[in-house]
Design a protein that fits this description.
This protein is of the alpha/beta class. It is built from 44 helices and 30 strands. The radius of gyration is 35 Å and the shape is globular. Mean pLDDT is 83; it is low at 514-535, 788-799 and 866-882.
């Protein structure tokens, strides 16, 4: 009979020959048949590499690694990957253990045929309609050996270097082929036998022993101790279908723990659970009751599964994934899983009692977490844990906590994890970070902080660190990076997969960093991006596990709330400052130089010095044809200006105090800029005899990118005297704690408010050991003014890895004008990014294909073609409302230039752009402090006075401060401070403005400033006010030694507090000493009278009544 693979001869004769040989070996030598099918898979992958012009891996160039590489490119869909895995795995068994099952060979042969038709439809002829597979007949040929020898000779002759062939699919783009690969694989209908074979492989990856043809009831397989069997065709008394045979019965040892139903694609899976799985679970045969663990109502099996072998897709949720139902509780709803549950995971589910654990959690007091000898958590940290626990008990699967940088998120996490594990609410926690340094920092806290009976978390529980990929039953906490989980889940290097129940709680630190884009795509975006394109790796990892997710962030972004929901708890930076847990920054130092104000200007006819970072050469440009100007946001990006950097650093270098105990962090544009800053500072400091080690660059490139060396450098900055000044780019922008930082210097502009707030967070931590009361911001590039314009700006190009092909494919099928407008916006924005990062050769090709237009002018033509625009600046692009005819014309104009866009996509060289070296002299022309809305201190104080007088009768706490300050409570003062802060009035900035205006160095509190402005009170420092009040109290009373000792302690606390009330005795050291009740006894029951009297003295400041 004719070979099923005959049709491949047209383009791929080698594949046709290998397929035909496998058919001929089917009955006479099934081992050789399986081996040939493995060869077929290998050859097919090599053909894809050749067709796509993708270089093979230079390291570990194995078949499995080549498949992984194509998967990363989006060229191998999940179903095809499953088929390739099954063929490869069975071929390995054929080689190493003599696998020779005719039944297996038949299934694999049909599977390989389906693989070949997919390959033809994607890489050969898009109009090809596959013929039905015909299983070869068992016939005895008289010249069988001669036929086999002839085929082997042909295969040997065709096994030369694989070369790219030209087919009808050659004129299709890569993106079009990726889409075709996905849709063709999804439309591929596997037989039930093939589906079962693939499910066998999946189950084996998760620790089950599965083999439909051999591990089946009819062949005598029964549960065994120490075995985790998935026994096929298990009989029940059900009459629903197939004479009551369940596709699989899952056994852990002798315990029946699950029923699995496997269906063909396009079946609505949840209905399978309702109509078949539940029936099987109820109608277990009486003779099999010995395997039943327990009965839950009418169910004798705790868990049921239904699947069609298709990977989970949110968009077709009911027809994909592995659907699972826990039958132990009637209120449980079926849900789709993204993988199987392992035998260990099944047993852990059986052991879990959520209701009991929730009750334990609710009834466990927080005293242990408040213990001064243990975690010593603050009240807001306790409230954060309470909020998380309530959300979990209420059944929320995602929980977001928002806590300002520096407020102790890691310690909060430690306390929360401890309570969750101790109460048995969760069995195993994944602590997920996106940087190794953050994981190491968390591990240090888990190792060092005492939590119970002077024991640390890692001495109480088994914790696996960053270097340990695998977990075991005893593991309670696993610290891992997103990157390591991506490898294990998406590109596994072994034959095992993590179970979806390996972790039942995932704690995500720094959740605002979700990479490029972590949102469900709009329908527009779904038109041209497949599953792997639009779900970021970060989100894929988080959603893979069937676990509760608790995320913590300081700066919730849109993608954060879309993944985890709105925060159930908020503790802001301003609250933390007001509560005294973080330090505030003073009014920023705004340094204006001549070049910053006037820009760097070149005249027509001048020549520029151009530095090429690739060759390291400096050359002169041609004469300028037009005038050229660079603004401040181009400094040190497009133009290197040493005079600007030197002028600024000369102005502030000694303010940074390299001899002091405080430290400084300087944010540079890039590595080269960081090197320049370090060079200049070392030169400045060397003249003053400062240690050369005082200044250091810490970026991702130092020590050749050696992570260990970088980590050691960060630890030096944190723990040792030197370096005092560190220059970084992004490495130290988030997540690294160095409390000694007292200065931040912004030598680069930032367009992300989230990043800016994270950068500020590096300096907000308390550091009593160096007397830190605030931190300074030096702003020579106008980062504040730049952020005012972009605080609500969102990137138009949502995913930089999206190609022009992607966008054009979407544009060609977009239905509405809104969809088209969105895509045109995205295309133009991507052109803006590309114009300054393209090779000369590519640019020449682009100009030729667009009829003489460079990228800049081409982008303008798209923007202006048939459309009235309001914006002249290329970076501000918006497609306004236009007629459908105009929009269609614009779309046609764009698509007809497809080849030009493809040229840009093929320009993969990540070259560094040449930059201009500028030597225009610079000088400081103004140095001011940035006070809220006003620039001058007197303006700031005047606006404060106006605010007080305007709101005196509308803000209750404001009126209390002026009329009855002794009645002010801590809570009402906090609310007042937050309201003032909302209008940019803070204690730090008011004190600095007063000092600048009057030359009087008085550190007054907010109450003193309010009373001064509203009542004309004398402005005295907080310390003087407190000391005077306590001195007067002692003068008017006779106290015993114990009482005087208590007064001294109260006075010491009041030097750090603004309000004295009963509440102050119920927190901190006072509470540990017995609180108000015990201290009141020391004063003979008159502590309340003393509080009233002290408050009277505190506000004897000469002010008139308001």
């Amino acid at each position: 009979m004719k070979s099923n693979f005959e049709y491949l001869k047209r383009y791929w004769p080698a594949l046709a020959q290998i397929g035909a040989a496998a058919e001929n070996y089917l009955y006479s030598d099934p081992n050789a048949c399986i081996y040939k099918l493995g060869m077929f898979g290998e050859r097919l992958i090599l053909e894809i590499f050749a067709f796509e012009h993708i270089p093979e891996p230079t390291v570990d160039n194995t078949h499995s690694n080549r498949i992984r590489l194509l998967k990363r490119e989006g060229l191998i869909p999940k179903k095809i990957d499953d088929i390739l895995y099954a063929i490869r795995k069975t071929r390995n068994n054929a080689v190493h253990s003599g696998e020779d099952s005719v039944d297996d060979a038949k299934i694999l042969l049909q599977m390989t045929y389906n693989l070949s038709t997919w390959f033809m439809e994607v890489y050969g002829d898009w109009g090809y309609i596959p013929a039905d597979f015909v299983m070869p007949e068992k016939v005895v040929l008289p010249d069988y050996e001669a036929i086999i020898k002839e085929q082997e000779d042909k295969i040997a002759a065709l096994s030369h270097q694989v070369e790219s062939v030209s087919t009808q699919a050659s004129n299709k783009s890569t993106t079009e082929r990726v889409q075709k690969a996905e849709t063709t694989s999804e439309n591929m209908e596997l037989s039930e036998a093939e589906t079962r074979y693939l499910i066998d492989e999946q189950l084996r990856k998760y620790g089950w022993e599965a083999d439909t043809n051999n591990i089946r009831y009819s062949k005598g397989t029964r549960p065994q101790k120490g075995k985790n069997f998935a026994i096929a065709e298990w009989p029940t008394d059900s009459k629903v279908s197939k004479n009551g045979y369940a596709d699989y019965a899952l056994f852990v040892g002798l315990q029946l723990v699950g029923i699995v139903e496997a269906k063909k694609a396009n079946i609505d899976i949840p209905s399978v659970i309702d109509y078949q799985c539940k029936d099987y679970a109820q109608l277990i045969k009486p003779e099999h009751n010995e395997y039943v663990i327990k009965q839950w109502g009418s169910y004798k099996v705790p868990f049921v599964f239904a699947t069609n072998g298709r990977k989970y897709l949110k968009q077709i949720e009911t027809k994909s994934g592995i659907w699972f139902l826990d039958l132990r509780n009637n209120s449980n709803a079926p849900k789709a899983l993204q993988g199987w549950i392992s035998p260990q995971g099944i047993m852990e589910l059986l052991e879990k009692d959520i209701s009991s654990a929730n009750a334990t959690l609710q009834n466990t007091p927080f005293d242990l977490l408040r213990d001064p000898d243990g975690l010593n958590l603050r009240e807001y940290q306790i409230r954060a844990i309470e909020a998380a626990e309530k959300a979990v008990i209420d059944g929320k699967q995602t929980v977001l906590l928002s806590m300002a940088t520096g407020t102790g998120k890691t310690r909060t996490i430690l306390g929360m994890i401890y309570r969750f594990i101790k109460s048995d609410r969760f069995k195993r926690v994944l602590f997920l970070v996106d940087r190794t340094a953050l994981g190491e920092q968390a591990a240090d806290v888990f190792r060092e902080v005492k939590i119970e009976e002077l024991m640390t978390l890692d001495s109480i529980y088994n914790i696996k660190g960053l270097d340990e990929k695998e977990i075991d039953k005893e593991t309670k906490i696993h610290i891992a990076t997103v990157q390591s989980l991506v490898k294990r889940i998406l590109y596994p290097e072994s034959d095992t997969m993590p179970s979806v129940t390996d972790y039942d709680l995932i704690v995500v630190d720094e959740a605002h960093r979700g990479y490029i884009l972590d949102k469900e795509m709009s329908e527009t975006e779904m038109l041209y991006r497949n599953q792997d394109d639009y779900i970021s790796k970060y989100r894929t990892v988080i959603e893979y596990f069937d676990a509760v997710k608790v995320a913590l962030t300081a700066t919730p972004a849109l993608h954060t709330t879309e993944i985890f929901g709105k925060p159930v708890f908020n503790y802001s930076y301003r609250e933390a400052v007001i509560d005294g847990y973080l330090v505030d920054h003073d009014a920023p130092h705004n340094i204006k130089t001549k070049l910053r104000v006037e820009g760097i200007n070149y005249q027509k006819g001048e020549q520029l010095a151009i530095y090429d970072p690739v060759t390291g050469e400096v050359m002169n440009s041609a004469d300028l044809e037009d005038d050229m100007k660079f603004e401040i946001d181009s400094f040190n990006r497009e133009v290197i200006t040493e005079p600007f950097n030197r002028t600024v650093l000369n102005e502030i270098a000694w303010d940074l105090n390299p001899d002091g105990k405080g430290k400084t962090l300087i944010y540079a544009v890039d590595d080269n800029h960081a090197d320049l800053i370090v060079k200049i500072l070392k030169e400045i400091y060397s003249e003053g005899g400062v240690d050369n080690d005082a200044v250091m660059k810490i970026t991702g490139s130092v020590a050749g990118g050696n992570k260990k060396k970088i980590s050691e450098a960060i630890k030096r900055f944190k723990n040792e005297s030197n370096p005092k000044v560190v220059v970084t780019v992004d490495l130290l922008t988030t997540g690294i704690d160095v409390p000694e930082i007292v200065n931040l210097v912004f030598m680069r502009r930032i367009k992300s408010r989230i990043l800016f707030e994270q950068m500020l967070g590096r300096a907000t931590r308390l550091c009593p050991s160096i007397g830190k009361t605030n931190f300074e911001i030096y702003d020579p590039v106008g980062v504040y003014e730049s952020l005012q314009d972009v605080s609500n700006m969102k990137p138009v190009v949502t995913n930089p890895s999206t190609t022009f092909e992607d966008l054009l494919s979407g544009l060609s099928v977009a239905k509405t004008d809104d969809e088209k407008a969105y895509l045109i916006d995205t295309i133009v924005a991507k052109l803006q990014r590309k114009r300054s990062n393209v090779s000369e050769k590519t640019l020449e090709q682009f100009i030729y294909l667009t009829g003489g237009q460079d990228i800049d002018s081409f982008a303008k033509s798209i923007r202006n073609n048939n459309i009235k625009r309001s914006a002249d600046v290329l970076e501000t692009v918006g497609v306004p409302l236009v007629s459908s005819t105009e929009m269609s014309s614009l779309v046609d104009d764009i698509i007809k230039n497809k080849e030009a866009f493809l040229v840009l996509d093929r320009d993969k060289v990540q070259h560094k752009r040449p930059v201009i070296i500028d030597n225009h002299p610079d000088e400081v022309i103004e140095r001011t402090r940035g006070y809220g809305e006003g620039q001058k201190p007197e303006d700031y104080l005047e606006s404060f006075k106006e605010f007080i007088s305007t709101n005196l009768n509308t803000i209750a706490a404001l009126k209390t401060v002026c009329t009855k300050p002794s009645e002010l409570t801590r809570e009402s003062l906090k609310g007042l401070k937050l309201e003032l802060d909302r209008h940019n009035f803070t204690e730090n900035q008011l004190n600095t403005a007063w000092k600048e205006m009057t030359n009087q160095d008085i550190v007054a509190d907010i109450i003193a400033f309010i009373r001064q402005q509203a009542l004309g009170s004398n402005l005295i420092s907080h310390e003087t006010r407190v000391k005077n009040a306590f001195a007067k109290l002692r003068l008017n009373h006779t106290f015993n030694k114990t009482q005087l000792d208590w007064l001294n302690r109260i006075e010491k606390v009041m030097l750090e507090e603004t309000v004295l009330d009963k509440q102050i005795f119920e927190i901190g050291a006072f509470k540990n000493a017995g609180g108000f009740t015990i201290i009141d006894r020391r004063f003979g029951g008159k502590l309340n009278e003393i509080i009233v009297e002290l408050n009277k003295y505190l506000y004897e400041d000469g002010g008139n009544v308001a």
